[in-house]
Amino acid sequence: MFKRVVPTAIAVAFGLLVLLGIFLPVEPLVSISNIFIEWAMVLGAFAFIIAFLNLLRVHLDRLQKFRKGSITSLLIVFSAVGTAILVGFYGPENEWVQHIFNNLLVPGQSALLSITVVTLLFSGMQIFRNHRDASGFLFLLAVIIFLLGSVPYIGILHDFAMALQLPATAGMRGVLLGVALGTVLTGLRIIFGVDHPHSDE
Amino acid sequence: MLNQWLALAFVLLAGIVLAIYGIRNRNKSVEFHKYPVFDALSSEVGHAAEEGSIIHVALGNGSLFGEAAMTSVAALQGLDAMIDLAAAYDMPPVLTTGDPTLYLLATDWVRRAYARRGNLQRFRPTLVRFIASNPVSYAAMAATYMFDGGIGSTTMLGDYTQEISLIVDASVRCGIYSAGGTTSLQSLGALYPSFKPDQLLMGEELFSGGAAVSDNPIYKASLGAQDFLRILVVISILVVTVLSSLGII
What we know:
The complex is a heterodimer.
Chain A: H1 5-23, H2 29-65, H3 70-90, H4 95-125, H5 127-130, H6 134-149, H7 155-191
Helix pairs in contact in A: 1-2, 2-3, 6-7
Chain B: H1 2-24, H2 36-51, E1 54-60, H3 69-88, E2 94-97, H4 100-116, E3 128-130, H5 135-148, E4 151-159, H6 164-173, E5 177-182, H7 185-191, E6 200-202, H8 209-213, H9 217-245
Parallel strand pairs in B: 1-2, 1-4, 2-3, 4-5, 5-6
Helix pairs in contact in B: 1-9, 2-3, 3-4, 5-6
């Protein structure tokens, strides 16, 4: 009873009320829906604490076994604990915390993003290894036209790239439409209580 | 307000269609398109057992609070059979995620698989790993796992953006078999050139995971309802296009 009916009933009731609060913005549905969303946010904060502890546990485990990647784990543990202590004591607006954010985190993220550009380029170069057909050729052709078309001085290619945006947008919307339908039906299965990702029963 | 009423009407219609398909196909075996990615997942457990390697599953950053919540749930449903098999043979995959709420759900998912197989004492909380909440940091750290060695295959299922190319690039460089699927357009652009068609799930194909790996008829009913609603949406688009071209609406 407690393992099967109660979790499903709670999930169905909360799901329905939040959904109705979004679709029908009338009182008291909106207030109830907002309260539930606020509760979920609080739970989300606790999830972050548990996830942070998992991060420490995984890397302390790796440090104990002292194998490849231990130096990375040491750095992660040191920076995670250090930052948590600093933010915990002084708050997120503190000068030192902001210093870490602006001078370590932001440049680090930017560096990683620039590496992503290179890895994307390498991925693109593998197109004919994995797609030796018309789709591979079309993919490469579209990429070249878009890249050259983004240069303003190559007029005709720029116009061609603009024209190519029409089928590209249609394709993108087609993919997104399918994803939206999949999302709606997966959500409905949970709200109907026929699918319970939160329990086995 | 009209948009909200229309959205509610569409969700209600989807619910009715799902119920009809569910009742109609209750005792029927429905055939649907098979995706090799899901079929390959279970055989990966066999390969991992033979080679003594680890299966890495990257679940991405799809938070259970956001738009990608159902993508993350569908990804876990697609992995269900593989996690079950891995729990039975105690060849657990390592699941990595970049979202705390997804981390909790994934941990519970793996723990339940061990419990179902009566093997709960072998479950270890470090089988599911929260790596970083920032998508780029998550992908970069997941990529370093490949270089640490021991990983036999990598499956990427879930919500990503273009940073997924960091993981794909690492798996290519390390010679690790990889496959995956995602719903975002940026990550599809990154995955498409790197994966053969049988290694890739595009967009809505990710949602067929439950039907591919489970006998539960509701998953197949859901796919049937999805096809029906797609046709309905296409017809609606055509009708609206014609009516607006004629100046009626």
